[in-house]
């Protein structure tokens, strides 16, 4: 794709997103034909959204667990952006009307204390572990903002940040004070009913492995992670789609509890 096509595709995606209009297939000449083109469009989408005072705050990693790979039919991780206005504290009440079709996932989130820049690649698990500052129990908020996501393909979903719509964070815990993230057991509870369970090992074998994948993925594109940025490492459970009035509670052993209401 040429630069003009990339920008035109990004404009259509950003407009649909800000207007909460379900996104259908892009015009044929603007459809990314591979994931590399999807990430090029995604970068432009980030710039367009940042111009609307949506400060870029970090990344989410999708398809890091088998349950999510099977659900979406994509056998490898995918990355998307997270914006500051979409980050909330535990206990928040959010309007379902602010989304097209809102869903939630149970996640381990980390905030970086050191940069992970392209010149320092490749990154191992040990190197990225040293960059982790705080950890959080997290609810990732996802939005099915598509006419039918199953027909769009991974490149277009990547261009639109792979369903990303924000997150809710539990209290920060210093990385040195948390247990082995691979051993964390997580539970998704909706309206008091257990609807899903998973473990840190479900996330590419270890959530820090997912972080290393992201750092190397970005480095290959000439991008990096910066101190202070947040990374959602991937869902321990299958996405749960919500309706108005639903109350969400995620419990992650050793990391704590995070809750939100959708009204």
Automatic annotation (TrEMBL):
Keyword Membrane recorded: no
Q: What is the lineage of its organism?
A: Bacteria, Pseudomonadati, Pseudomonadota, Alphaproteobacteria, Hyphomicrobiales
This protein's name: Fumarylacetoacetate hydrolase family protein
Start and end of every Fumarylacetoacetase-like C-terminal domain? 99-261
MF (Gene Ontology): hydrolase activity
Q: Does the keyword Iron feature in the UniProt annotation? A: no
* Key words, A-Z: Hydrolase, Lyase
Organism equals: Bradyrhizobium ontarionense
PANTHER family from the xrefs? 2-KETO-4-PENTENOATE HYDRATASE, ACID HYDRATASE
What InterPro entries does the record tag this protein with?
Fumarylacetoacetase-like_C, Fumarylacetoacetase_C_sf, Hydratase-Decarb/MhpD_sf
């Amino acid at each position: 794709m040429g630069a003009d096509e990339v920008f035109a595709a990004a404009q259509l995606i950003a407009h649909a997103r800000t207007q909460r209009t379900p996104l259908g297939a892009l015009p044929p000449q603007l459809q990314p034909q591979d994931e590399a083109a999807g990430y090029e469009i995604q970068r432009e989408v980030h710039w367009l959204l940042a111009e609307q005072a949506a400060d870029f705050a970090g990344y989410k990693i999708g398809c890091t667990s088998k349950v999510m790979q099977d659900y979406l039919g994509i056998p490898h991780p995918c990355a998307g952006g997270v914006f500051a206005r979409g980050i909330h504290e535990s206990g928040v009440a959010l309007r379902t009307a602010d989304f097209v079709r809102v869903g939630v996932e149970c996640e381990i989130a980390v905030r970086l204390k050191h940069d992970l820049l392209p010149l320092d690649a490749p990154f191992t698990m040990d190197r990225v572990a040293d960059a982790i500052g705080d950890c959080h129990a997290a609810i990732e908020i996802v939005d099915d903002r598509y006419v039918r996501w199953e027909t769009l393909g991974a490149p277009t979903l990547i261009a639109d940040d792979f369903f990303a719509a924000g997150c809710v964070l539990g209290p920060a815990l210093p990385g040195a004070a948390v247990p082995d993230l691979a051993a964390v057991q997580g539970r998704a509870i909706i309206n008091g009913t257990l609807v899903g369970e998973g473990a840190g090992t479900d996330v590419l074998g270890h959530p820090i492995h997912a972080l290393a994948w992201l750092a190397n993925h970005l480095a290959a594109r000439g991008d990096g992670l910066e101190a202070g940025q947040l990374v959602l490492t991937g869902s321990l459970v299958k996405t749960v789609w919500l309706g108005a009035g639903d109350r969400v509670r995620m419990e992650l052993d050793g990391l704590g509890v995070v809750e939100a209401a959708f009204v």
